Structure formats: C-alpha cells, structure tokens
UniProtKB/TrEMBL annotation:
UniProt-listed SUPFAM superfamilies: Arginase/deacetylase
Keyword Cell membrane: no
Stated name of the protein: Agmatinase
Organism: Paenisporosarcina antarctica
Gene3D superfamilies: Ureohydrolase domain
InterPro entries noted in UniProt: Agmatinase-rel, Ureohydrolase, Ureohydrolase_dom_sf, Ureohydrolase_Mn_BS
Keyword line: Hydrolase, Manganese, Metal-binding, Polyamine biosynthesis, Putrescine biosynthesis, Spermidine biosynthesis
Pathway(s) where this gene product acts: Amine and polyamine biosynthesis; putrescine biosynthesis via agmatine pathway; putrescine from agmatine: step 1/1
Enzyme class name: hydrolase
EC number: 3.5.3.11
Length: 290
C-alpha cells in the first residue's frame, strides 16, 4: 500500500501498510445475492472506505486516535456473483486464515448472511464464544421462501451452532411470531426495541468471555440510516448506538471480531448512511481493539 492510499478512499482511513504488524484486519464482503427486498449492499464496503477520508482521526468519546491502533485494510473478498454457497465457503476460509494469523477480523457487508460464515469460523477458534447482535430484525428464520441461505437466517444458524443461550440480540423490532417464540423457548436473550440499557445489564454476565459483535445498520431508525436494504421505522438513534459501542469498550468482555453490514449506499444520495457507518467503525476500532 502506498502512503497516500491512507487518504485516497481506496482503504479505510489510516490503514496500516503492513499486514504482519497489524492487530486487526478490515475486509469487505460485497454480497447481496439473497436479499428479500432491495439489493445494493454489495457496494457498501467501498463507499464506507471512501467516506472514511472525511473522518477526524481522533475520538473525543474514547480519547484515542487512529494512530493508536494498527489495522490493515485488505480490500474486498472477491466473491462469485450470484453464488451464495460458494461465497459463504470463501468467506469462512478467508476469516479462518485471519484467525490463524492472530488477527481480529473486522468485516464490512454486504447482506447479513455474510456474518454467518465469519461467526462460524470465530466459534471454531473460540469455543466459549458469545454473540452480541444489534439489528431491527430477528434473523431467526430457518429459510425464506424455501431458501435456507438467506439474509434472514444468520442468527438462527449461529444460535443452532453454538447454542441459543450464547446469543444476545438487541434492538429487535421486526420478525415473524414464530421467531420470537423460538428465541423465548430456547433461552436466547432477545431485547425488543432498545439496545443500550439491556446491553448494559448483560455485559457484566459476559465478563472475560470471547465475544463477536455483529451490527446491522438497520438497527438505526431510517431517519438516521436510510441507505439500507430493509428499512424499518421505530429504530434507535445514532447517539444510542455510539453509546452502546462505548459501553462494550468499557466492559470486561474480550471482543474477538466484529462486523457492520447491510449498508446500501444507492438509497441514500445524501451519503448520511455511509458517513455514519465509517464513524461507527472508527469507534469500534478504537474501543474494541485494545
């Protein structure tokens, strides 16, 4: 990577030039093959990178600067267009290699199905893994219109893989009745509508555990993030989401990976959503990569 790439929009701002010396690796998962409403999230990762050049490098919330964290932007994983299964396999193999190298995976989606192979790979590395999931939607379906590979299924898949009691969902305000019933009957933690206060109650119970955090941008109200594939009114504010990120940063959990998904830039010509996403990633990097 050339020195000027750090300010060119080709990589996330202040990306470290050396993979081996970096603690975390940012990578894009440009896939939207299974969306049920509006496609376009495959363009999210690169637009977030481009928006990041407008960020301040200093976080007044955390009193840290991007120079304090070494992260490498590896670009987007080249995924086979229209082939969900092969795309999932390639994502899992890619993240498995990152974990073998001792890196913290930092993913940018892409639809939410891309989180499933990442969480699966992280669970293999960290057997006592817990998942923190922030989203408007339950994502607990077994299938959508008969298709098991769908962006409405990743949380069901990881819950069945590591046990529902190890999955904690927040901000949920949409889903089938059967999904809410399944979560309750199987002991999964599911907080409707709010994120910050129920999250603060849960964090002490996860102290010392490895945790993967997956955030769907649509946990935010469409007024704050209109650039997403499945908008859903009644969401949280950017202020609450930032406070939730900072609550995790101030806790005793061990964040071993994280992602931000479902940014679809085409539906937000104001670029509000990609700018918000880039700031959220800055705060996650500064708060969670110790």
């Amino acid at each position: 990577m050339r020195f000027d790439d750090a300010y060119s929009g080709k990589v996330f701002i202040k990306s470290h030039p050396n993979y081996d010396e970096s603690q975390a690796v940012i990578y894009g998962m440009p896939m939207d093959w299974t969306v049920s409403y509006r496609p376009g999230s495959r363009f999210g990762p690169q637009r977030i990178r481009e928006a990041s050049i407008g960020l301040e490098e200093y976080s007044p919330y955390l009193d840290r600067d991007l120079d304090d964290v070494k992260y490498f932007d590896a670009g987007d994983i080249p995924l086979p267009f229209g082939n969900p299964q092969k795309s999932i396999d390639e994502i899992e193999a890619y993240v498995t290699k990152l974990l073998a190298d001792g890196k913290i995976p930092v993913g940018m989606g892409g639809e939410h199905l891309v989180s499933w192979p990442v969480m699966k790979a992280v669970a293999e590395k960290h057997p006592n893994l817990a998942i923190i999931h922030m989203d408007a939607h339950t994502d607990l379906r077994e299938s959508y219109e008969g298709e098991a590979l769908s962006h409405s299924t990743p949380i069901r898949k990881i819950a069945e893989h590591i046990g529902p009691k190890n999955v904690y969902s927040f901000g949920i305000r949409s889903g089938m009745k059967e999904e809410f019933v399944w979560a309750k009957e199987n002991g999964m933690h599911l907080s409707k509508f709010e994120v910050l206060e129920p999250l603060k109650e849960i964090l002490p119970t996860l102290a010392g555990r490895p945790v993967y955090v997956t955030i769907d941008i649509d946990v935010l109200d469409p007024a704050h993030a209109p650039g997403t594939g499945t908008v859903d009114c009644g969401g949280i504010t950017t202020r609450e989401l930032l406070a939730s990120i900072h609550a995790i940063a101030g806790s005793d959990i061990n964040v071993v990976g994280f992602d931000l998904v479902e940014v679809a830039p085409v539906y937000d010509p104001s670029e509000q959503t990609v700018n918000t996403a880039s700031k959220l990633i800055r705060e996650m990097l500064l708060g969670w990569v110790k």
